[in-house]
Amino acid sequence: MSTGTAGTAGGGDGRPIVIVGASLGGAKAAEALRAAGYRGGVVLIGDEHERPYERPPLSKGYLLGKTPREKIYVHPPQWYAEHDVTLRLGTAVVAVDPAAHTVRLADDGRIEYAKLLLTTGSVPRRLPVPGAEQEGVLYLRRVDDCDRIKAALRPGARVVVIGAGWIGLETAAAARTAGAEVTVLEAAELPLLRVLGREVAQVFADLHRDHGVELRFDVRVEELTGEGGRVTGVRLADGATVPADVVIVGIGIAPDTALAEAAGLTVDNGIKTDEHLRTSDPDVYAAGDAANAYHPLFGRHLRVEHWANALNQPQTAARAMLGEDAVHDRVPYFFTDQYDLGMEYTGYVEPGGYDGVVFRGDVRANEFIAFWLKDGRVLAGMNMNIWDVTDPIRELIVSKRVVDPDRLTDPNVALGEV
Ligand SMILES: Cc1cc2nc3c(=O)[nH]c(=O)nc-3n(C[C@H](O)[C@H](O)[C@H](O)COP(=O)(O)OP(=O)(O)OC[C@H]3O[C@@H](n4cnc5c(N)ncnc54)[C@H](O)[C@@H]3O)c2cc1C
Ligand SMILES: NC(=O)c1ccc[n+]([C@@H]2O[C@H](COP(=O)([O-])OP(=O)(O)OC[C@H]3O[C@@H](n4cnc5c(N)ncnc54)[C@H](O)[C@@H]3O)[C@@H](O)[C@H]2O)c1
Predict the structure, then answer these.
(1) What is the pLDDT of residues 267-277, one digit of tens each?
(2) Distance CA 232, CA 226 (A)
(3) Predicted TM-score of the model (pTM)
(4) Please, are residues 166 and 63 in contact by the beta-carbon 8 Å criterion?
């Protein structure tokens, strides 16, 4: 392992390792570099003004007022100085020059790098309809977005959520919990359809209906109506208008590949990397939401838009930048909390890429594990209000062994023995 005091790993030649994007991914990369014993310079650059924080609480505990602000941060404020990490906040990188090994800042300053890591994350897709830029139309990505939404979630407020994905459903749950009247408008037939498929998507539809959310599927939003520059409703293609005091838009994200593209790196559904998180330039790496990384277990590139990926990939990238033969081959994992329901999902299934779903446990009581199967093998498992099962689920996926579906659904058979 390199200590970074010599050789090509960075620091040895006086140039730092530069990380662009100061969120979970960037902060974890800086931490991993120090944990690996690297003693050269680390510069972490972010265009937000907050020090690196985690986004999951923004649609859950922090939005609900249960998680205090100081709990959202990746590290305490003094951590950066204590670990000799130069944190440059409120600073946008506007260009990367791979040949010169420099990044250019918005103020035209330049920083040289030995290795560069792009953890630029992703940006919300904007709603492409008339009226969408009015006051009261809110997106959720950053902590100040969350503060605006939080202020709008009042008892009796008419909240319309566009998109029944993770943002839409988690904010709908928070809005109902705050006593708002909530309508969710989704273009597809069911919530989370692309990720979960019909069988399990239905569980989330039922959950929200049971909590008094009005769900409308197969809708086409045509316009956001308004008065005096403030949104008043959502007009649909069928002519109906849903009145709204506030509209929350959660219609997906796009990986932030602007810098990479302009720098001539290979970009295809994210910044393309190998299993070491190295891009098409040998001294530039990418991780987190922005990276479309080759995954050895699946034998293909995969871009994962979830917390655990932004937590773990940068650790591999950091070690690879230091010259180790580090490979990212973790099985994707994510979680959600909505109302009193907690769920974890382990695995990866392409839309429609399974031939059956089986359940172990009590689906009506929301206490079950769902398994997605293909040719008798487990592709993914989702445990709902059941805990401490992600290790055996992961083992079933990684082993790629054919399982007996009767034993898989029998709660009396240990998962390791199906
Ligand atoms: C509200 C919300 C709730 C979520 N909840 C969950 C959850 O419950 N479970 C789960 O698994 N996942 C969840 N996610 C997803 C998870 O937060 C993301 O996968 C994760 O934030 C990705 O981290 P990242 O570091 O790759 O990118 P990001 O968090 O997007 O950070 C990228 C950073 O880079 C900065 N940046 C971009 N370009 C530049 C530039 N040129 N110069 C300087 N800075 C730049 C951006 O401003 C940003 O600060 C949630 C996301 C959101 C928005
Ligand atoms: N628990 C979690 O893992 C979690 C929680 C919050 C956010 N996130 C992440 O945040 C990002 C953004 O989440 P998201 O919910 O915006 O994206 P998403 O991709 O999960 O869902 C977007 C939804 O919007 C629908 N949609 C798209 N265009 C529409 C339109 N014009 N009208 C109505 N519906 C439309 C899609 O069919 C889809 O159901 C994702 O990367 C997500 O993984 C994750």
Answers:
(1) 999 999 999 99
(2) 5
(3) 0.97
(4) no
